[in-house]
Amino acid sequence: MNIGSIKENAQGIFVGKITTLTIAMTIALRVVQSANERAPKYDILALGTSRAWVKVGALFELFANGTGEAFLNGKLEDPSLASPLYVSAFRQTDGSYNLVWSRPTTRRRDLASEVAAKSDDALPPLPGEEGGEPQVQEGLGESSAEHGFGGEPQETGRKQRGKRETEAAE
């Protein structure tokens, strides 16, 4: 699906717009100067609310398997986006690019959706339900100051040991 276009302006800079239901941004492409053949061809810059350009992604030059035709492929990623936006840019006869979006082919496992997808029958019974633990368990709600380990009563208050009791304990 086409979500935007990029055209070269009078200054020789590729500028365009991306528009979806939740995104409306002005973007520009800046050529990446690198001797590395694996480097992106362009940085993607977006015009922020403060009217400053912010780098939000990169486009790499790829070639179609069947025709050998060059196209650009990359993603936009920014904290303001719910998830990265994967895009491809295809050159048109007038020199502009049409931008299309795509979903990634391999998705990361989403644990929350996996848990939600399981049936409620797989959950253990709630406390107090048949087969579940009783709601009030023995020993809960009792102060450790009043009861020692093993349920034996314990003297309340602090008792200071005398010199003889201290020596005998050692």
Automatic annotation (TrEMBL):
Basic and acidic residues bias locations: 155-170
Biased composition (Low complexity): 133-142
Pfam families (alphabetical): DUF736
Keywords noted in UniProt: Membrane, Plasmid, Transmembrane, Transmembrane helix
Transmembrane segments: 12-32
InterPro entries: DUF736
Residue span of region Disordered: 114-170
Protein name, as recorded: DUF736 domain-containing protein
Organism lineage string: Bacteria, Pseudomonadati, Pseudomonadota, Alphaproteobacteria, Sphingomonadales
